[in-house]
Amino acid sequence: MVKFSARLFSVIALSLSSLCLAAPWRVVESYPHPTFAFTQGLNFHHGFVYETTGQYGESQLLRYQLGDEQPELLHRLHRRYFGEGSVILNNEVIWLSWRRGIAFAIDTETGNRRIAFNYDGEGWGLAISPDQTQMVMSNGSDQLQFLTTTGDVIRQVRVSGGARRWDQLNELEWVGNTIFANRWHTQQLLAIDATTGQIRAVFNFDELWRVQAERQAINRNMSFNGIAYKADSNTFLVTGKYWNTLYEVELEGWQ
Fold first, then answer.
1. pTM, whole model, 2 decimals?
2. CATH class of 15-251
3. Residue 214 neighbours by CB distance under 10 Å
4. Model confidence pLDDT, tens digit, residues 92-104
5. How big is the CA angle at 204 (ends 201 and 210), to the nearest 5 degrees?
6. 160, 212, 169: which is closest to 9 by C-alpha?
7. Chain CA centroid to CA 181, Å
8. What are the start-end ranges of the E strands in 54-198?
């Protein structure tokens, strides 16, 4: 495993309105990550990572423990489906499909699949509230859609901060009253107020992308994507599409 110095990797200072939203982060550990995984959804549950991947003909649900070299394949979608983000609800992984408007439910014990619910438009990222009573979904725009656990729409919130548009919202994670969102084609991670949609902090992981580029041949399409909260250590697991490394990081300035 690659060890990192204890220094904080600081983001480029971004001043939105009168508030500086730049926030520091620090790598505390690194683990193997399957290089065939086009990472779409990342979850940490009872000591296991549950990862959903994308691409037609390659969309899989994987399960592994931190440090494992070879993940367990729990389910593979038919080639007509492009897998997207996911959450764990009870004993099932709720898994979005990109343009099919279908959320699948995969049993974590048997791998059996059923249709959980249908939705309008594209499905990108998915996260579940800490009390597991509602979910939030992204669709690549600057909007977040809040749903019941059966897929009914509750409300929609526009993510905002300063004059720019914060679109391309992708993989999501919900901790407390903060929703974390990767932005597609960037190395940014946003910390968003779950009530108002206001951005609380912006984490820039360009430095981590450069570190990863020294470890394997990657290109800009292999974006930083995937975030899972590790409650026992108050840290986060992050990675990228086809990366060979999963990183455990501390995030500051978002609470």
1. 0.91
2. mainly beta
3. 8
4. 999 999 999 999 9
5. 165
6. 212
7. 7
8. 60-64, 72-76, 83-89, 92-97, 102-107, 113-118, 126-128, 134-138, 143-148, 153-158, 169-175, 178-183, 188-193
